[in-house]
Predict the 3D structure of the following.
Amino acid sequence: MENFKLGVKRPLIISGPCSAETKEQTLETCVRLAETGVVDVLRAGVWKPRTSPGTFEGVGLKGLAWMAEARRLTGLPISVEVASAKHVESALEFDIDCVWIGARTTVSPFAVQEIADALKGSGVPVLIKNPVNPDIDLWAGAVKRFAAVGIPMESIGLIHRGFSYYGQSRYRNAPMWPLAFEMRSRFPEMMMIADPSHMSGTVEYLYELSQAAADLRYDGLIVESHVCPAQALSDSKQQLIPGELERLVRSVNWRAEAVDDPEYVKAIDMLRDQIDQIDTELFSLLSRRMKISDDIGRVKKANDVAILQSSRWGAIKERILSQTDKLGLDREFLNGILEAIHLESINRQNNVMQDAEL
Ligand code: PEP
Ligand code: MN
């Protein structure tokens, strides 16, 4: 089999069980996934970093032997999660095709460094999951550690699996898409795939998250699949049987980035011109509004009045938010904009108050 490389197949579909549990479960899942024809790389966790002790922590080395057997039976490349130098050594002994760094490992620079050192020179591609906490520098730092030991950028990829979130969220791990865009703008050439399984936490949201990733031009998906999800020893609620996995993958529409059909180009150009025009107006209005805030600051200063007047702010908010339906805008979105404008307005008034010249 030729060496597996990132960036060749797009979309790249990785699938397999959350954990290799038994030889039968691993082989049956992998063989059935290969038969679907939609899977490019097989995955399984053999060492499981669990949040709580006493839960299933993986079968270790024998899981690697089962995955190697799955590769022999299917002809597909295999990948596992590595969390230490020892894991890397074992994975390399089994001639692993690809490894990934789990979200709980990306948070630890020591662990990432020792994995990078152990992987150095092996030629094996590495996929780096985002850290559990929404910290882009930590994610970027992990990429830099692999690059610094000489692993070529083309052999490094990203997995966006969502971020742990305190409070209510629709998903187990909130996608926080803008953070992933930030990561992409730091590494524009690097491939990024989405992990809707760990974002969702249940099978319920896999379709919407997978399609969202395709719409946002991700380069593929990593999705968990198990022959009998109800009996899975980890992540049982989010795994699909191989047939369902096939349906999911086939349902995703990986739209073209751009087409050169003149009708399309004309229509999109017209709409973009309108957006540019509106943005210009929007920001010049904002600029005028802020200048008025400066004037208000001057008037308050002259009259020795406090900046923050909560009743006035309450009235502004109330007036705008009562028009949510008429404006056809989401209430939370409007609220966010109002808060940002208010904060900047207070900063401006503060500057006026403190500056003797203004
Ligand atoms: C996994 O892929 O099974 C896994 C443990 O994921 P994460 O590191 O994203 O929690
Ligand atoms: Mn899992």
